[in-house]
Amino acid sequence: MSPRMSLATAARVLRQVRHDPRTIALIMLLPCLLLGLVAWMFNGTPVLDTLGPTLLGIFPLIVMFIVTSVTMLRERLSGTLERLMTMPVRRGDVVVGYALAFGLIAAVQAVVVVTFAVGVCGMNVAGPLWAVILVGVLDAVLGTALGLAASAVARTEFQAVQMMPAVIFPQLILCGLVMPRDQMPAVLEAISVVLPLTYGVDAMQTLAADIDVTAIWGDVGVIAGFIVVAVAVGATTLRRRTA
Amino acid sequence: MKNPDGAGPPDPGENGASPGGAVIRITGLRVVRGGAEVIPGVDLAVPAGQVVGLLGPSGSGKTTLMRAIVGVQVVAGGTVEVLGRPAGDAGLRHEVGYVTQAPSVYPDLTIAENLRYFAALLGTGADDVARVLDAVGLTANAGRSVANLSGGEKTRVSLAVALLGTPRLLVLDEPTVGLDPVLRRDLWDLFARFAATGATLLVSSHVMDEAVRCDRLLLMRDGRLLADETLPELLARTGAPDVEHAFLVLVEAGAR
Question: What is the pLDDT of residues B138-186, one digit of tens each?
């Protein structure tokens, strides 16, 4: 691994995003708009305080998953990935570069959305706001890492778009958002244990209700572990030689 | 796919490359793509310091052969050695420049941003970027976004990336397609200057006329090499007035 090449790749990805202001606007404003809709719908009830933090953990995961898998597919189809594979850059450098770049964008997104949720929508969280932002950023990096791992499977644009419901929707259904996990059938609860989003949502629900921030460190550790594994899978599935 | 007997590659003893000086050495290369054998068996030695033209119609296996040489093609059999190492070896990644058929640069970045990124990966700097911009005649356009360039300009940006650093072998897949004649002449001059410094160039084209700019020719059809010799040798052997006719003579000879 070479930090110089990872950083060069991250800087290149950020430059590409900077040339696309509409995408930046969508990444920053769309979660605010959706959260605003929820706040408006449940105006006068405490729903935003319980549901809001969970949504703050889910939006970045979905957005970064899609952005990453589409960007990687573009690298593959345009031939730039093939060129990179003939150059002195390691596969891990490319994958970590992507994770760094989208992690930074996610951090800005988390700050914007949390500021909007608290400042404009009046969301109340028991835990500290920095912890909400931290979990949001980790979820976003997780989305990028999963997108990198999943992009190895997608060969066409249609497949790349289908990867999102294939990888993310089962996690949404089983993460405890639709039904508390202890009320699920035992098999489904067991499956939810090995899905990363479960821990992102658990951390956010803890922060919503509990003032003690130390209660999330277990979840944070598990999410970080999933990120490392997904980045490693992404680096391994990036093939230098293709048919 | 049916392959008539007798259309195999020419005797390797005739190719004239000195055994020690070969930059690319291929023995028994077989490539299968999508169940079809696209290269049934190629033997080849490319000597150093020359511009070698890889000519053949679309679908003849030129790109697959080049991908095998730069080490991004899954091969079914045989060996490909570049500069004495197995193709795709980590030690070759500073030595081999590769231009794919499509301009493999980032369309949403400017020309300079593209070159600075690839230069950073190769560990070279601003001087190197300025040098390659000048070599492809794009210095004045360095700040323009690649997406807004013409096809020929995009090709030149892609070529400039391959020139970064000090590659000893350049593998260029149809770099002159769609370029205006003046630019094409300038690029072939550039290739010749590059070869004069000791570098080796493998340049593919489906335009047979470009043969006159090459030191050596490889004619390819259906994944097989029909010829591996200089232009005068090819014309003398086939009795044809030009490469186009020589190609036809060789194809018809192979079909009998």
Answer: 999 999 999 999 888 898 999 999 999 989 999 999 988 878 888 888 8
**Is B114 within 8 Å of B106 (Cβ atoms)?**
yes
Q: How far apart are CA A197 and CA A199, in angstroms?
A: 5
**pLDDT above 80 for B238:** yes
> How many domains does one find in chain B?
1
Query: Hunting for tokens 């499977």 — which residue is that?
Result: A153
The answer to whether the Cβ–Cβ distance between A89 and B121 falls below 8 Å is yes
- Say which residues have a Cβ less than 8 Å from residue A13's Cβ, sequence separation at least 6: A71, A97, A98, A101, A102
* Confidence tier at B209 by pLDDT (50, 70, 90): confident
Domain holding B179: CATH number? Answer: 3.40.50.300
In a domain, B125, yes or no: no
Distance from CA of B89 to the nearest CA of A (A): 9
- Residues of chain A positioned with their CB less than 8 A from the CB of B96: 86
Residue B103 lies in a domain: no
- The C-alpha angle with vertex A59 and arms to A54 and A64, in degrees rounded to 5, equals 140
Q: Which of B104, B121, B145 sits opposite A79 (nearest CB)?
A: B104
For residue range A207-223, list pLDDT tens digits in order: 999 888 898 999 999 99
Q: Which residue has the higher pLDDT, B7 or B197?
A: B197
The answer to whether position B179 is within a domain reads yes
Tell me the residue range of the domain where B16 lies.
12-95+167-255
Residue type, B80: V
Whole-structure pTM value: 0.86
A19 touches chain B (CB under 8 A): yes
Chain A contact for B65, CB < 8 A?
A: no
CB contacts of B71 in chain A (<8 Å) are 86, 240-241
Q: What's the pLDDT at B110?
A: 97
ipTM: 0.87
User: Is residue B198 assigned to a domain?
Assistant: yes
Q: Give yes or no for B35 touching A (CB within 8 A).
A: no
In terms of phi and psi (left: phi > 0; alpha: psi -120 to 50; beta: otherwise), the region of B243 is alpha
How is chain A split into domains, by residue range? 3-237
Closest chain B residue to A243, measured at CA = B74
Asked whether the predicted pLDDT for residue B16 surpasses 50, the reply is no
